[in-house]
Amino acid sequence: MKNNVKSVFPSTGLLRLLVACPLLVSAALLANMSPSKAAPHYQPAEVQPIWMKIDLNADGKISREELSEEDPALLSRFDQADLDHDGTLSLRELEVLLLSV
Ligand SMILES: [Ca+2]
Ligand SMILES: [Ca+2]
Fold it and tell me: Which-ligand-closest: CA of 64?
């Protein structure tokens, strides 16, 4: 009978594990949501299609206005992305901007 009694009540160690599990899952979810581990907003394969879509006047450059049409959130990084400071983004500059998001 002693053995049966013991099996009905989980050991303290098992109880701790059951209590800790949800906490571990929560911690893992939080880690996944942190910016450093988030998946890139844009994929390299998307740059060319986005470029062709947002270069509305097809002059081979992306202006602030054109960028704001695609993603206003990127405007704050326009100056940072405009590496040659000509006031527009080349395909290469757009690529750097999108892939750094
Ligand atoms: Ca343009
Ligand atoms: Ca530029």
Answer: 1
